[in-house]
Design a protein that fits this description.
The chain is of the alpha/beta class. 33% of the residues lie in helices and 19% in strands. It contains 20 helices and 26 strands. A 7-stranded mixed β-sheet has the order 1-9-8-7-6-4-5, with helices on both faces. Strands 20-21-22-26-25 form a 5-stranded mixed beta barrel. A hairpin with a 5-residue loop joins strand 2 (110-112) and strand 3 (118-120). Helix 1 crosses helix 2 (42-57), helix 12 (385-393) packs parallel to helix 13 (413-421) and helix 16 runs parallel beside helix 18 (523-546). The termini are far apart.
Length: 644
């Protein structure tokens, strides 16, 4: 007679082929071709039942049976003699499933409240892991972050989750016990950088394996690349231990706990409601005067070239109150600039306090920029981006507010009006065009024409006369002709952007372009066009910056310049870097008292020279965001500059 004891979650998944709602995929490294392990003793089975069910019972693919029968162990354990009929065994397993199945918390991570808001526990209850087993016990974590500002914000969320579990952060990768790589999948080049970096991390792991006195090094891949490639990362890089998608960061302590038993852990389930609203990010560098605040996640635009909807999921917005609380907390910590983040940040829609999905103000459909359209139906109700900007700007009048990355369709007049009215909302708008040719814009499914885009630019400049615009452009998209490329060049010269992010097109799997379009522009042509786009934007940017020579800018000081310890660097309202000498200046415009300039200070700087990327000047005096305009009117700038 042989008795096999396993955990109930294993029975649930393997015998009944059900998958838990957490959809976590955990793979055993020593588990070849999905062959079920055999146990010589009940003690071995017990050990596997406690920690090994993650390896099999949570596998994405159903495990093939090798005539090994599973039952739960404990109060309702069942001994299964050899020769027991399959039918009788199935009845026993189903009975066991009903009488001692996982608790309700195991299947329901969220509860929907009456007012429509989401209540979520920061730590999900997992029946087969104790709280002690997910503790970091002081293990040292090293973060490597690639890509957009959202990834840097996500890294702070991850650090908040791990810090509560007794992990510590370290800046020396060679001393790390856990290496977490926050990845980007927007372009092939970004992924290639990560693969190369992984080779170095793998070498570190091999060295650590020879050091028996230290914990084994674990490597985790997080973010968009993890979501795009899923288990392929584990299959390609045998030394990667954790693959965690953008909506599974709460699960990281458990995934890391699983790796302690020589298993690889994968959780890449996308969520319809995860916003991490109840997690206060822990800033990686608390000394800086700026911070990111994520207000929404995902994107519904489905542009044909973009992988974001497939790696970040559908749009969902954080409740406004949680955002305001975080911004207030940052303000109290001395932060002077906050950037609101989202893949489509200005489509923000908070429905958490809607009393009814229809009727009244809740049913109002937000207006879009004139001449723009979407692939989805209008989204009714909720508090919109203009409401959020209004509330955030009132928290601290001396705190600058920026936001990225928006879509041109979501700049109705109420948003522009709030920006124009509030001094602490920067007059710097990112307006991604991607192309200046109508045929290419249609192929990209952007929802507007060149003419509609230019009309929006003119309207924005009418409402906000001193606005600075930046943009995104793709060179060599599917079907782009030389004339289409020239149309984009002419758009850049017409609009005159202070900055533009230009990239050659990189086709991504899963996108509509991958399935419907042909990547027919040769790489060498893409590269040439890319360089021409960069050259055109820099020519126009240089003209804009040279026009600023002699003017005075309000600069938020960030720190010492990268090129000289004798100079300081900061950003003006247009988000342009300003370099100036490190020296003491008057406390205020009409003061004879001087003090040193430090990070977080607002300083009036007179611009003396300019390049396409940077402004250079001389600091005049300390000031404030609200008093700056009055200060430069009250004093003779030339006299102050001469005195300095």
């Amino acid at each position: 007679m042989s008795t096999l004891a396993v955990s109930h979650s294993m029975l649930l998944n393997m015998s009944l082929n059900l998958r838990p709602l957490s959809c976590c995929s955990l793979l055993r490294k020593n588990y070849c071709n999905n062959v079920s392990p055999r146990f010589k003793t009940q003690k071995e089975a017990l050990k596997f039942g406690n920690i090994g069910s993650q390896a099999q019972g949570w596998h994405e693919q159903p495990m093939p049976s090798r005539n090994i029968f599973f039952s739960s162990f404990g109060r309702n354990s069942v001994e299964t003699p050899e020769g027991t009929s399959i039918g009788k065994l199935e009845k026993l397993k189903k009975h066991d499933h009903i009488t001692s199945g996982p608790p309700l918390e195991h299947f329901i991570a969220n509860s929907r409240l009456r007012n429509g808001s989401v209540a979520r526990e920061s730590e999900q209850y997992v029946p087969y892991l104790s709280a002690e087993s997910t503790s970091g016990y002081g293990r040292k974590v090293y973060f490597q972050t690639y890509g957009c500002q959202m990834n840097f914000s996500d890294a702070e969320i991850v650090w908040s989750v791990l810090q509560k579990k007794d992990f510590t952060k370290i800046d020396d990768v060679k001393e790390a016990d856990v290496i977490l790589v926050m990845t980007c999948a927007i372009r092939e080049g970004a992924e290639e950088k990560i693969w190369k970096r992984l080779e170095y991390f793998k070498n570190l792991k091999r060295r650590r394996q020879r050091e028996k006195s230290k914990p084994q090094l674990r490597i985790g891949i997080l973010g968009c690349m993890a979501e795009r490639l899923k288990t392929k990362i584990v299959e390609r890089e045998k030394l990667v231990d954790v693959v965690c998608g953008p909506d599974a960061y709460r699960d990281l302590p458990r995934l890391l706990a699983v790796t302690q038993h020589d298993q690889a852990a994968v959780n890449v389930l996308l969520s319809l409601d995860e916003t991490y609203a109840d997690i206060i990010p822990v800033r990686m560098n608390p000394e800086t005067s700026s911070a990111f605040v994520s207000i929404m996640r995902g994107c519904d635009n489905l542009c044909t070239y973009c992988i974001v909807p497939f790696t970040r999921g559908r749009e969902r917005s954080r409740p406004m109150e949680s955002i305001l609380q975080e911004v207030k907390y940052l303000s109290d910590q001395g932060v002077k600039e906050v950037t609101l983040l989202g893949q489509n940040v200005n489509s923000y829609q908070d429905k958490s306090e809607m009393s009814s999905p229809i009727g009244g103000l809740n049913a109002v459909s937000p207006s879009m920029s004139a001449g723009f359209s979407t692939v989805y139906k209008p989204k009714l109700g909720g508090r919109r981006f203009s409401d959020l900007l209004d509330r955030v700007s009132q928290i601290n009048p001396e705190m600058r507010i920026r936001f990225t990355s928006p879509h041109p369709k979501d700049f109705p007049d109420d948003v522009l009006s709030v920006i124009g009215d509030r001094r602490n909302i920067c007059n710097n708008l990112h307006l991604p065009a991607q192309s200046g040719n109508n045929a290419v814009l249609t192929a990209m499914r952007r929802g507007y024409t060149r003419e509609a885009y230019l009309n929006l630019v003119h309207h924005i400049r009418d409402v906000i006369p001193d606005v600075a615009l930046s943009s995104d452009f793709i060179s060599g998209f599917c079907g782009e002709t030389e004339q289409a490329h020239n149309d984009t060049l002419s758009l850049i010269r017409t609009v005159q952007y202070t900055f533009a992010f230009c990239f050659p097109y990189s086709m991504r799997e899963k996108t509509r372009a991958f399935h419907r379009l042909h990547d027919d522009v040769p790489d060498e042509v893409k590269s040439r066009r890319h360089l021409e786009l960069v050259s055109a934007f820099r020519e126009e940017s240089l003209k804009l910056h040279q026009d600023q020579i002699g003017s005075v800018h309000l600069v938020l000081v960030e720190g010492v310049s990268k090129r000289s310890a004798e100079e300081l660097a900061g950003k003006n309202d247009a988000n342009v870097r300003v370099i100036f000498p490190k020296e003491a200046v008057p406390n205020q415009s009409n003061s004879i008292q001087h003090r040193e300039i430090k990070p977080g200070d607002y300083v009036a700087v007179k611009i003396l020279s300019a390049s396409s990327q940077v402004l250079k000047g001389v600091p005049l005096f300390h000031t404030s965001l609200q008093n700056f305009q009055a200060d430069i009117v009250d004093v003779n700038i030339d006299d102050v500059a001469s005195a300095v």
